[in-house]
Here is the input.
Amino acid sequence: MKSPVPDPAPSDGEEGEDRTPLLQRAPRAETAPVCCPARYNLAFLAFFGFFVLYSLRVNLSVALVDMVDSNTTAAENRTANECAEHAAPIKVLHNQTGKKYRWDAETQGWILGSFFYGYIITQIPAGYVASRSGGKLLLGFGILGTAVFTLFTPLAADFGVGALVALRALEGLGEGVTFPAMHAMWSSWAPPLERSKLLSISYAGAQLGTVVSLPLSGIICYYMNWTYVFYLFGIVGIIWFILWIWLVSDTPETHKTISPYEKEYILSSLRNQLSSQKSVPWIPMLKSLALWAIVVAHFSYNWTFYTLLTLLPTYMKEVLRFNIQENGFLSAVPYLGCWLCMILSGQAADNLRAKWNFSTLCVRRVFSLIGMIGPAVFLVAAGFIGCDYSLAVAFLTISTTLGGFCSSGFSINHLDIAPSLPQTEASCMSISQLLQKERHPQSILAEWLIYLIILSK
Here is the structure.
């Protein structure tokens, strides 16, 4: 282990090893002496935005358990009796006013999966639009659209499976723009040595949204009925949109209340990452091994993450036999651990780079390794424990928690290997200078091309 150093001289403290566009020999500006930094206000508003986003995404997973006539599922499920009924009788009667639908397991799978049909379509276009016009409106209207469509979910369910599948696909279109739009904003707002921290704070809202919405949806279904799940979360999304439009700006230059000190700190820290590249370097992009490594990492991690996110409540009901209340709470426990891990790992990653002088490359690799291997081991183990309820929940919790390390691993690596688009009048590095980088020729990629590789997040 390396001993801490008080103040690394280079800009990012690591150019000797990484030689990325982040790491230029330029003096580093002092942190802005402000009480409520605008960049952290952005992080917390983004945090609540992703909180709303994932609440709107996962509420159907719990509500669907209550929407479906239990007799339909029981008649088809041959494994339901392998585990004994776990839930103890509850004295308070379950509200039964919500309409029930006779949807078999295959139909439920189509409904739950339809969200991703729309979600994948808007990933690449969103990155392009965000780079040209900014991410504020794109992110805001993406979540607003999802919230409005959520309000119509009970009506679509009454029209039939086709209408509900189409509505969920439209919600996916709205949510598909969010991560590319947020990345575009952070490329203009996040100083290099605060990048892990700021992005971890903002994206941790997704985990907390899952933690809150899963048990809350179960409570709403039990004491009210499943239709209120969509009405309440949809209204919260609209309220967030109003705050976002009012308080947020695309760049530090256009922010109305940012202090001059903080603006200078942000702009000076990003000055050496600006690119003058105008055309799209398709061939270097397709040949970039680093880029394809991030593609594979995103695909592999999100395959597991979204499978659990979508089907965990169904597993809790059909296999472990928990009732709707216990289902919501226990389904949320793994994501509480993941949320805490994301916050702590973001702090740890920035401290390792800034105070202990670890290279960005080393930090990204180690955190990605922990966040990929750990979840895989415990998830595989969960498949061999049978009906041990406590061990099943424990293994799933540990698996999802360890996945939080990835938020400071490959999940942020897009911003490490690609420079930002020109946002200020500061002089930009030429393409020839970027191509001279010995270990990272992919650094000529413009910022918006980052979003091409976010295939499933």
About this structure: Confidence is low (pLDDT under 50) at residues 1-29, 421-457.
